[in-house]
Specification:
It contains 18 helices and 2 strands. By secondary structure, it is mostly helical.
């Protein structure tokens, strides 16, 4: 340690006092430097006796009073830091070995004036006191500003609960503070910095955390207003909880204390990383939503296609069943006729006053092609009247050209394929009843005396 010899101590050593009352006063109030150091220096009392004696010797050599010397020593965190700064040889404590001087260093040292060790020790003590005092000033500055921010938050909350606007409450605070500071004050920043200490500083030693660095972290928070309850709350920005707390803990533990500009860059980096993560998450959500819509549309299309397929299959099955039933009925009728189990008498002639008689008379005198067209119209008109198709077939004078024209017309029917099929089936059944399926060409007089011919 520098032998911090004060000017007052030096003047007392060179100029003895002439006051006769001074000597009795010193004798009446003896000072014990060891007791003063033990009471004011936390690490001094635990030292071995040899180490204490070395420090007391340096205290005596420095010329400072025991109280001043103890105040300087209290600024050192440990005896090792004391030895490193003052270069006092304390038994049991190793000092950092000085670098081996080179020839140039030795030559420069021989030419340089002899160092004033007492002055150097005094300068080291003074620098340590400057550091300690400034740290205390920063701590007090931080603590008082945080307390001010808390009070500002409470004031704004109270004004909001009274139905006042937040802008008016903030303006009142800033106006009041500018009167005593001589400069404009940002009340919102005071409040935000206070909440930084609460939301990010919980569980962290803030002894070495300057207020300026704490203020740089305010961008990590956001204010959430609740008009319905006339209140507001401060929270860590969404998605930043882990990263914000980790950054704050790193700043608090950093040695030496980082520069505020570097802290500002770190904060912006955390914000940029969070924004990128949020963007990627939003893109993934949009893609997932698009995929879901596509899947939904595909499912609806598949369901509609399946429904149409089921309807088509049902219609085809119903039609096939109906056709099969008609064919089965035809075969049964033909079989009973062939076995002699059933005999169908020739239909009675139509009455003269029946309109159908006159229609059929017109068909007889027409050409085969025209007769076929007329027959088709009659068949389509009578297809829903029970027994009418059979009456028409039994009342006509059939010939091969006429039968061929009717069959071709039925085959070309596109508007009513089911009706055409029914008409053709009726003609076949009628022919099988009168001629017989598989028999030789036979002739039987019809009602009007013509011959009905059936070809196999």
């Amino acid at each position: 340690m520098s032998n911090a010899t004060s000017l007052r101590a030096e003047s007392q050593s060179t100029s003895p006092t002439t006051d006769p009352a001074a000597a009795p006063a010193q004798e009446l109030a003896p000072v014990d430097p060891c007791a003063i150091l033990s009471a004011n220096v936390p690490w001094f009392g635990a030292l071995p006796q040899a180490a204490k004696e070395a420090i007391l010797a340096d205290c005596t050599e420095s010329g400072e009073t025991a109280a001043v010397y103890a105040e300087c020593c209290a600024d050192f965190a440990s005896v090792a830091e004391y030895v490193e700064s003052t270069e006092v040889a304390v038994p049991g404590v190793e000092n950092v070995a000085p670098a081996v001087p080179t020839a140039a260093d030795k030559a420069a040292a021989s030419e340089a004036p002899a160092p004033d060790k007492r002055g150097q020790k005094k300068a080291a003590l003074l620098l340590q006191r400057i550091d300690s005092t400034y740290r205390k000033a920063l701590a007090g500055y931080r603590d008082q500003l945080l307390a001010t921010g808390k009070l500002c938050h409470e004031y704004v909350a109270l004004r909001l609960s009274l139905g006042h606007t937040r802008a008016a409450a903030v303006q009142s605070v800033e106006g009041k503070l500018s009167e005593c500071g001589g400069e404009s004050v940002n009340a919102n920043r005071l409040i935000a910095t206070y909440h930084v200490s609460v939301l990010l500083g919980t569980g962290i030693d803030l002894t070495r955390f300057p207020y300026r660095l704490m203020r740089e972290c305010t961008e990590l928070l956001e204010r959430v207003a609740s008009p319905s309850t006339k209140s507001e709350a401060w929270t860590i920005r969404e998605g930043l909880e882990t990263d914000a707390k980790a950054l704050f803990a790193r700043i608090a533990a950093a040695v030496p204390v980082p520069d505020f500009a570097a802290v500002g860059r770190d904060v912006k980096e955390v914000l940029a990383t969070a924004a990128l993560k949020a963007s990627l998450k939003a893109n993934e959500a949009a893609k997932a939503a698009g995929a879901t819509e596509e899947q939904k549309a595909a499912a609806e299309l598949a369901e509609e296609t399946a429904k149409k397929a089921r309807e088509t299959a049902k219609k085809a099955a119903d039609k096939a069943a109906e056709t099969a039933d008609k064919k089965t009925a035809t075969k049964k009728t033909a079989g009973r006729k062939k076995a002699g189990q059933e005999h169908t008498a020739a239909p009675a002639p139509l009455p003269i006053g029946n309109p159908l008689s006159h229609i059929l008379a017109a068909v007889k005198i027409a050409a085969p092609k025209d007769s076929a067209a007329m027959i088709l119209d009659i068949l389509r008109a009578c297809k829903d009247i029970p027994g009418s198709l059979r009456e028409v077939c039994a009342s006509l004078a059939w010939s091969e050209p006429l039968a061929k024209a009717v069959i071709d017309g039925l085959a070309d029917n596109r508007t009513d394929p089911d009706g055409a099929e029914t008409a053709l089936l009726t003609m076949v059944v009628y022919g099988s009843e009168y001629v017989g399926e598989g028999a030789e060409t036979a002739a039987e007089p019809s009602r009007n005396g013509t011959v009905a011919t059936a070809a196999a």
